[in-house]
């Protein structure tokens, strides 16, 4: 599609966050919406490289609420959009052998329970009974919630994209933002490699590229692009219903993928950057860390590996909403690996912010950009 001259709302970024916002804007009656995507197709960046995990087992109220409300929508996603999300509610199992982490786990469960998430703590014996393939030696315990699970992020994107197009949203692919033309402190035009477009409102749903785009507007967003790598194996008889297993001690996670295993690890020494070339040593480290708690991986043959990007903030929470110094600009990035699992709730809240001036669906003020300057960070520790 050719680039229009103007639009009420221009969304920069055609991943799952951008498409969710576009869809929920149409549900609020705002249909003059243009989504700019730098690639030839939507969802080729972080959305398409995502492991697909969805969970409400977080350690802060705001993350739990955004995840829980999103899970409720994922559960009826096909009814809403006509698109099967392939949502397997196999649960998330968090495990630890660390005393401090175990104490944190128990506190998290109390908070989760108070907010409507019926997660439970498990003894090592209960973990072994639930997931016999897991080596529980040395574990102090774990936590589990059955409504957590795994879905297809690309299916979520497609569902929102189709419904948005039906409502009149214009998706302009293969179009990269290169700058902004300003007038009296406001954005007059978004400059792209395909021309210019005049927006009333600009939404930055640009994921790992948000820091770069922020610099074009003289904002230093603390959202760092960080590579994360995933490895899959050929089938080894992993049974259906096998949960997402998170080893908080090693920072690794894994789940069933077509009878094999999909696994990943958050390397704390990863440097800032937009490169996504898979690294062999990184792949081997992922396998070793995962094998420590799932020994059957030793029998597996590696099928594939790939890398994608997180947009990581200092407190591991997203940056959402209007910027005080430039309220024409709406932030929707910095999800620190949780964008897909929060996309529906984020889409609803930001559509409300754009159309009504303030969201009522969920509290969002604690996630605004200004929290960093004020020193009001909301630290999420239950992350990998």
What is the element layout, followed by pairings?
Elements: E1 6-12, H1 16-27, E2 33-36, E3 53-54, H2 61-75, H3 77-81, E4 92-96, H4 99-114, E5 120-122, H5 124-130, E6 141-145, E7 149-150, H6 153-166, E8 170-172, E9 177-183, E10 186-192, E11 195-204, H7 210-216, E12 224-233, E13 244-247, E14 252-257, E15 260-265, H8 280-291, E16 302-312, E17 319-323, E18 326-333, H9 339-356, H10 371-374
Parallel strand pairs: 1-2, 1-11, 2-8, 4-13, 11-18
Antiparallel strand pairs: 3-7, 4-6, 5-6, 9-10, 10-11, 12-15, 12-16, 13-14, 14-15, 17-18
Helix pairs in contact: 1-6, 1-9, 2-9
Please describe what this structure looks like.
The protein has helices at 16-27, 61-75, 77-81, 99-114, 124-130, 153-166, 210-216, 280-291, 339-356, 371-374; strands at 6-12, 33-36, 53-54, 92-96, 120-122, 141-145, 149-150, 170-172, 177-183, 186-192, 195-204, 224-233, 244-247, 252-257, 260-265, 302-312, 319-323, 326-333. The strands form three sheets. Strands 1, 2, 8, 9, 10, 11, 17 and 18 form an eight-stranded mixed beta sheet that branches. Strands 5-6-4-13-14-15-12-16 form an eight-stranded mixed beta sheet, with helices on both faces. β17 (319-323) and β18 form a beta hairpin. α1 (16-27) packs parallel to α6, α1 (16-27) packs parallel to α9 (339-356) and α2 (61-75) packs across α9 (339-356). The protein has ten helices and 18 strands. The chain folds into two domains: 6-50 and 154-223 and 315-374, FAD/NAD(P)-binding domain; 89-148 and 225-312, 2-Layer Sandwich (D-Amino Acid Oxidase, Chain A, domain 2), CATH 3.30.9. The radius of gyration is 21 Å and the shape is globular. The chain is an alpha/beta fold. Helices cover 29% and strands 27% of the residues. The model has no long low-confidence stretch (mean pLDDT 97).
């Amino acid at each position: 599609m050719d680039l229009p001259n103007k639009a009420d709302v221009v969304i920069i970024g055609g991943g799952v966050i951008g498409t969710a916002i576009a869809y929920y804007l149409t549900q609020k009656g705002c249909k003059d919406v243009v989504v700019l995507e730098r690639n030839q197709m939507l969802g080729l960046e972080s959305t398409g490289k995502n492991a697909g995990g969805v969970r409400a087992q977080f350690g802060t109220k705001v993350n739990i609420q955004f995840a829980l409300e999103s899970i409720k929508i994922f559960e009826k996603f096909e009814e809403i959009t006509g698109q099967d999300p392939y949502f397997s509610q196999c649960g998330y199992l968090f495990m630890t052998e660390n005393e401090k982490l175990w104490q944190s786990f128990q506190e998290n469960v109390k908070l989760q329970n108070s907010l409507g998430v019926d997660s439970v703590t498990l003894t090592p014996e209960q973990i072994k009974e639930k997931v016999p393939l897991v080596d529980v030696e040395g574990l102090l315990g774990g936590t589990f919630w059955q409504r957590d699970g795994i879905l297809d992020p690309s299916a979520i994107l497609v569902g929102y994209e189709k419904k948005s197009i039906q409502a009149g949203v214009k998706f302009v692919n293969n179009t990269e933002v290169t700058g902004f033309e300003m007038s009296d402190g406001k954005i007059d035009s978004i400059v792209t490699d395909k021309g210019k477009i005049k927006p009333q409102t600009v939404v930055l749903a640009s994921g790992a590229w948000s820091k770069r785009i922020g610099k074009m507007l003289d904002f230093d967003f603390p959202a760092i692009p960080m590579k994360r790598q995933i490895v899959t194996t050929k089938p080894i008889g992993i049974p259906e219903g096998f949960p997402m297993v998170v080893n908080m001690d090693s920072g690794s996670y894994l789940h069933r993928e077509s009878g094999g295993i999909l696994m990943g690890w958050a390397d704390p020494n990863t440097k800032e950057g937009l490169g996504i070339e898979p690294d062999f040593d990184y792949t081997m480290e992922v396998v070793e860390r995962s094998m420590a708690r799932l020994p059957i991986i030793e029998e597996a043959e590696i099928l594939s590996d790939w890398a994608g990007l997180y947009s990581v903030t200092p407190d591991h929470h997203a940056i959402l909403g209007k910027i005080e110094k430039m309220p024409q600009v709406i932030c929707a990035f910095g999800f620190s690996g949780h964008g897909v699992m929060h996309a529906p709730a984020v889409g609803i809240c930001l559509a409300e912010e754009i159309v009504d001036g303030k969201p009522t669906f969920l509290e969002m003020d604690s996630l605004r950009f200004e929290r960093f300057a004020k020193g009001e960070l909301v630290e999420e520790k239950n992350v990998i």
